Amino acid sequence: MDLSENKKELKLVFWVLAIFLAVMTISAGVGAFNQIQESRFIGPGKEYPNTISVNGQGKVFARADVGNITASVVSEGKTVEAATADNNNKMNQVIAGLKNLGVKEEDIKTTAYNIYPQYYYPPNGQRTLTGYEVRQTAQIKIHDLSQSGEIIKQITARGANEVSSLNFTVDDEESYRQEARAQAIAQAKEKAQKIADGLGVYLGKAISFYEDNSVPQPQYYDASVGGKGGGVATPDIQSGENEIVSSVTVTFQIK
Questions:
Q1: Predicted structure pTM score
Q2: 149 and 233 belong to one structural domain
Q3: What's the chain look like in SS3?
Q4: CA-CA to 174 of 20 to 30 Å: which in 15, 30, 46, 208?
Q5: pLDDT value, residue 78
């Protein structure tokens, strides 16, 4: 191979390397340009708008129109058969008395039926079975609240020896809650507008809303009855009013 051919090969290698370096340079430049464009037009994201958050509360008082009461019949006997027979007989009388007062069958619900063995524990010795206790509990829903006192009198006279958890609620609570919610929102808007005026900014639209959905506690009354029941005077039961509260948090844009 002569000298001229060597020069031709060196020139060819030189041009190949030059083209390769040029392509790499252009590629790097395009990548850098794209990164600049992305950072310019995409950026870290849209900034969160300026906002203020305020609370509001509304209250509505509603006359209670539904009552609930728990009645139990507790019986004791030497045998399970004797205790259950006595218990079932008395509870049947209680239910019959409720129906006579206009309480519907669907408003009487058995919630517990338990049988417990009873033992005698001597100071020094082995325990001895003495009998059984049967406890049957029913929950009663009262629509005619004027009958509340008479219902308590009748069920105790017929064998219910434990009466408890008398409470009064509102059947259509949602309509009252909507009224309370409207009051709470109006209060929040008024508060937000005053804050915006004080800051010298424009109050924009609401962008978030939260309502505390806690359930109001019903009105409870002590209706406990001890002993064997019967012979009690008709109690004077007052159903009163229930307070329904709506608490809201609203976030507004400001400009």
A1: 0.61
A2: yes
A3: CCHHHHHHHHHHHHHHHHHHHHHHHHHHHHHHHHHHHHHHHCCCCCCCCCEEEEEEEEEEEEECCEEEEEEEEEEEECCHHHHHHHHHHHHHHHHHHHHHCCCCHHHEEEEEEEEEEEEECCCCCCCEEEEEEEEEEEEEEECCHHHHHHHHHHHHHCCCCEEEEEEEECCCHHHHHHHHHHHHHHHHHHHHHHHHHHHCCCEEEEEEEEEECCCCCCEEECCCCCCCCCCCCCCCCCCCEEEEEEEEEEEEEEC
A4: 208
A5: 96
